[in-house]
Amino acid sequence: MTTLREIAKDSANRIAPEDFTLLAASAVGQTKEFVFREPEHVLSLEEGMRLRSMIERRANHEPIAYILGEREFYGLPFSVTRDTLVPRPETELLVEEALGLLSKHDKRTVVADLGTGSGAIIVSLAHTLRKMKLLATSNEVSCAERKMNSKLTSLTLVATDISPAALDVAKRNAKRKSIHETVVSDKPIPSNFDQISDGSCFTNPSPGIPGTPFPKGRNSGLCTSDEEDFSPLEKGSTESSRGGIFTSTSTAVQSNPSLEERFDIDFFEGSLLDPIPESVFEEKNNILIVANLPYLSRTLYESASDDVRLFEPESALVADEDGLALYIELLDDIARRKESRWKDIRVAGLFEISPEQEPTLKKIFLDRFPSSQNDFLPDLSGRTRVFRFRID
Which domains does the chain have, with CATH numbers? Predict the structure, then answer.
């Protein structure tokens, strides 16, 4: 008979202790806390074989997420397969910034997640928006929360991917019972306005100067039923993402949501915006494009760890033009649409990028949209990670 402690000792030189804890918990069908608390737990023959197989896979650099078939993202459990990238913590910045933008939208808004992969971004957005709506239907809410509730119900959420296998994973995640029943999270729910003591709210950031970063200033106003513009977050780097409007957390919602309280997501197979029917954009005022497209250059990809190169889909990681080929294609498509079908639609965007791409992407963007606002946001390590823009 073999104990957890014995297998942990045998594997100590092959995999990291934190990896062993996750694998052991999965193998015995228990929590991480159980593994820490019960090192003398005796494994059954089946459990021992399963754990040793997992350890062997991890020792050969297979990512934990693929071994377990799951990865947490934005506080939610997402299924992942070799057909999708493993969701990464830095991508959560896209979700946070998107929520901040949506907190100031008007009702006729489309949110498009391009290159959705496992669906982590769009499903996290839908889940958090649902929580915001549920909170805003309770009796003890602020004027800002009531106002948010009136705006959320008509959002249109869509996602695309060129891989049918990845889309299948995303669709399954959108329907996962474990995600829909996760109603209390440690992730912050963005409050759409900063509250002040007299009950009024700060609204509408001041309009910025074309071609410059987003404005720091803002105007104050009373919380009314009037719809606000789809205004960008104020310039503030990490302050605007993890402080400021991202200050309230959800602990109030306890009941499971009904089907009517979910946000439906339409998935389309194809590249970028191409597969989305034009009818989706009809009579819309705003489009928010959130994209974590392949952005690694060939050089960066070749220097990546074995975990990445040997297991994650190369087509979801690498792009030509020093990693910017798909973003260039997307910006060109937006430019064409703005000249015709999208003349009266405001387009905002959040692109995940690699830090060294900042100056090149800024030039590419301003060559096409010289009078539009844009800036770059850092991840938790302080490195440039998200390109943010608005095209009026």
Answer: 2-60 (1.10.8), 82-391 (3.40.50.150)
